[in-house]
Amino acid sequence: MRLLFHSLILLLLQKPLQAQDVITLNLWEQDPPSIGQEIDKWIAVFQKNHPKIRIIRQHYENETLRTKFLRSAATGDGADIVYGPNDVAGVFAKAGVIQPVDTLFTRKDFTESSQRMTEVDGKIWGAPLSEGAHLLLYYRRSQVKEAPKTTKDLIEKAQAYTDAKSQRYGLAYYMSEPFWFIPFLSGFGGWPLIEKDKAHAVTIDTAETRQALHYVMALRDTWKITPAECDFDCAKSLFLSKRALFHISGDWELNALRDQVGQDLAVAPLPILSETGRMLMPMMGGRFLYVNATAQGPKLAAIRKFIEFSGSPLVQKRIAKQLASIPAAVAVRQDPALQSIPLLKQSMEAVTQARPMPPQVEMRAAWDGMRIMIQRALSGTESVERAAKTGQKAADEALAALRDPKPSAAKK
Q1: Is 143 in the same domain as 231?
Q2: How far apart are CA 251 and CA 341, in angstroms?
Q3: Together in a domain, 255 and 193
Q4: Would you call 393 helix, strand, or coil by DSSP?
Q5: CA angle at residue 66 from 62 to 71, to 5 degrees?
Q6: What pLDDT score was predicted for residue 327?
Q7: Strand-pair partners of 24
Q8: Are 270 and 366 within one domain?
């Protein structure tokens, strides 16, 4: 009887111990539902191979995820892993809510550009999964025999197609969003950030910015190939309804546009700016895994296993085939099977002409300033020259707030 009693006690004690052996990881992401569903498939395979690791995915909208993760650093109940873009690296690193991942993945297996995209203060803060999020020139093969190599060629083709009376335009893109302004800025030799004395400064009020802004205005007012105003949905709608010959949008639209346009869809790199001979160089981003700064011991070991799995050929090929994104793993990107997918191959060729988006926190201020500048110029509220100064002032103020935030109400 005594032996039976002791055996029952041992069985009861073993149950909580076994439960403790299971490590739970919270993964937060901010992408559309289709991406979340794909991540769930990765998680299912991973958990089958690692039955003692449980991953719970939670979706949040962009800003909600950012602010919630930053706030959770104080309470310690935030995500263990964040699946997100490179532009959060600087914010999270400066706030001390993530840890470097240099030693959590085999660096030689991934492209140098993907690693640079989350490098801040000499450390890599995000394990790379994919590259891209770059702008492409979309068109239909049946309407355009050969993609324009220069803006002069693009404008000529666009003018021939434009008919204001029937609301048909040669070019449609998200006119007021600064991400779409960057290629024109780079075409004139400008860039929103410069590095000086190991720090970064926002450079909006420059001759290059003003030239680019005048050029964007001319597309609408001089060459008359764009609508008076157009946001993301407007531009996409015009292209899908064949009321826009050319459409500038990101690689994230490849699957959706292919599904609606079919085999007639084609993409190309943005053309050379005829006035300068420089490419209209877009920014590129990607998707990365960020690790909570508090993760250590068995939890960090579990996170490392998931990072290794996410960088494996199995997941990297799915990123390419299912998400139409460019894998960050060098060997997978060179896989002939992926090279044979026409739209993906064209996107991979185009991304070589893109420049990594700066991960530094200063870039957030630059976005704010450029958005105000573009909107004021396009609306006619201010001249190009005045709008550039307004944008610089807004960026400087935003940057000051980011670098020296005021105490929150809770701390007062």
Answers
A1: yes
A2: 14
A3: yes
A4: helix
A5: 145
A6: 96
A7: 54
A8: yes
Residues recorded for the chain: 412
In angstroms, the CA 204 to CA 359 distance is 17
Residue (of 23, 17, 100, 16) closest to 56 by Cα position: 23
Packing angle between helix 178-187 and helix 362-379, nearest 10 degrees? Answer: 90
Q: What is the pLDDT of residue 17?
A: 39
Residue type, 68: K
Contact 204, 193 (CB under 8 A): no
pTM of the model: 0.88
d(CA 7, CA 247): 72
The gap between the terminal CA atoms of the chain, to the nearest Å, is 65
Q: What's the Cα-to-Cα distance from 331 to each of 111, 273, 388, rounded to whole Å? A: 10, 33, 44
DSSP secondary structure letter of residue 382:
S
Per-residue pLDDT at 407: 42
The CATH number assigned to the domain holding 53 equals 3.40.190.10
Q: Which two tokens stand for residue 117?
A: 């995209």
| DSSP characters over 260-317 | HHGGGEEEE---EETTTTEE---EEEEEEEEEETT--HHHHHHHHHHHHHHTSHHHHH
Number of structural domains in the chain:
2
Give yes or no: residues 159 and 73 share one domain: no
At residue 345, the 3 state secondary structure works out as: helix
User: What range does the domain containing 162 cover?
Assistant: 135-281+362-403
Separation CA 75–CA 317 (nearest Å): 37
Residue 308: what residue type?
Answer: E
| Residue 4 tokens, joined | 């039976």
Sign of CA dihedral 251, 257, 263, 266: negative
Is residue 202 domain-shared with residue 277, that is, in the same domain?
yes
| Amino acid symbol at 390 | T
Between CA 272 and CA 274 the distance in angstroms is 6
pLDDT of residue 3: 46
Is 37 part of any domain? yes
Residues of the chain with pLDDT under 50: 1-17, 407-412
| Same domain, yes or no: 212 and 254 | yes
Same domain for 262 and 178, yes or no, is yes
356: left (phi over 0), alpha (psi -120 to 50) or beta: beta
2: CB partners within 8 A, 6+ apart? none
Structure tokens at 95: 């706030």
One domain for residues 257 and 143: yes
